């Protein structure tokens, strides 16, 4: 459930189809995921999962797979 929710967040924040939101999707690998979209993505993740990401985690969140790994540190399971 959390994985689908996160996939939807990525798709919405980046303005892409959910079908391209796979583990290998990485920051700057698509035109839509630039620094501005990254901050929008972080904002929606924090709001929808009711968490506050550390600055290091914001910087490290470099792919869909990494996002799941980082959110695991906040008690979310995928």
UniProtKB/TrEMBL annotation:
Recorded superkingdom: Bacteria
Transmembrane segments: none
Residue intervals of the Carrier domain: 4-65
SUPFAM superfamilies per record: ACP-like
InterPro entries documented for this protein: ACP-like_sf, PP-bd_ACP
Pfam families attached to this UniProt entry: PP-binding
Protein name (database record): Acyl carrier protein
């Amino acid at each position: 459930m959390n994985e689908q929710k996160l996939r939807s967040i990525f798709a919405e924040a980046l303005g892409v189809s959910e079908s391209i939101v796979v583990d290998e999707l990485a920051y700057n690998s698509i035109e839509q995921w630039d620094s501005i979209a990254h901050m929008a993505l972080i904002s929606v993740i924090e709001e929808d999962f009711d968490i506050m990401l550390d600055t290091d985690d914001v910087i490290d969140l470099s792919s869909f797979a990494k996002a799941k790994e980082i959110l695991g540190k906040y008690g979310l399971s995928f």
